[in-house]
Design brief:
about 160 residues, mainly beta, Immunoglobulin-like, 5-stranded mixed β-sheet, 3-stranded antiparallel β-sheet, 17 strands, about 0% helix, elongated
Amino acid sequence: MIELREVSGMTDIGAIGVRGEAGVNLIGEVYLRDTDSSDLVWSAASPLILGVSGDAYGAGASNFSISVVTSAVTITVSGGQPPYSVVWNRLDGPDAFWSVLAPTALTTQFRRTDVAPGDNESATYSATVTDVLGNSATTSTITATVANYGGLGGPLP
């Protein structure tokens, strides 16, 4: 519902709402406009709340160094105002051997190159999600772990 009222030559907006199954939910943005600019003066988007599907694991078996890709990790977003932008960040410093396969997506996997036989490697990541209004939130820490089970004695199948 939008209630507009003229007062002293200016328009006063009383309320903006959408009636959904659970009642009235306030949504949207209100802009005041003059001849030169538009300024956001109100937004009723709820805060961003993020969830993560869990840590990521991957393994291979070779008597040589290999690249290993982890299982997928997915961020769930509630609140805010879509569309959302995503940036994945490595928390334990840069490492040329680790990469994020979909660095701007809600679902991604991680790759570690040069995993030597018998090695087990880990890296920690988080993602920052920003909505169209510029509100942002950061996920909890995600651990990506990879292993090469080769070189542990005997031939590989």
